[in-house]
Design goal:
- This protein is mainly alpha-helical.
- It has helices spanning 4-49, 60-67, 71-77, 96-100, 110-114.
- Helix 2 (60-67) packs antiparallel against helix 3 (71-77).
- The longest helix is centred in the N-terminal third of the chain and has 46 residues, at 4-49.
- The chain is elongated.
Length: 119
């Protein structure tokens, strides 16, 4: 007899969770079907107009990593993707404007350092 009260209290909660979960799944399935229909329509329009989808100009290694689901490795496969070397193979160089600029003083540069309150 003592198990009836917890059962009666938990049963509606479990039913609500099951119904809510099935509703979300149905909505996701509906969106996936709708997206597939839109993609098919777009393909038909592109075929009718003679438009071809351009081939990706990324290196083959990047495409392989993306298809495998490894996004970080794909980024590292791009020149300059590891943050060490900018794209184009040029290292970091200071231009004439930055070379002539004096070094910053203080934690936030000379302007903010001069505004600091006296000790």
């Amino acid at each position: 007899m003592e198990w009836i009260l917890p059962f009666v209290v938990l049963l509606p909660f479990v039913l609500v969770v099951l119904v809510a979960g099935s509703g979300r799944r149905a909505a996701a399935d509906h969106q996936a079907r709708r997206l597939a229909v839109l993609e098919r329509k777009l393909d038909l329009i592109m075929d009718h107009l003679g438009i071809r989808e351009p081939e990706p100009d990324a290196p083959a290694v990047v495409i392989q990593e993306l298809l495998a689901g490894r996004k970080i490795q794909a980024i590292k496969g791009v020149p300059g993707g590891d943050g060490r070397e900018p794209a184009g193979g040029q290292g970091r160089r200071r231009g004439p404007a930055t070379a002539a600029r004096p070094a910053l003083t203080g934690a936030h540069g000379p302007r903010l350092a001069s505004r600091a309150s006296p000790p």
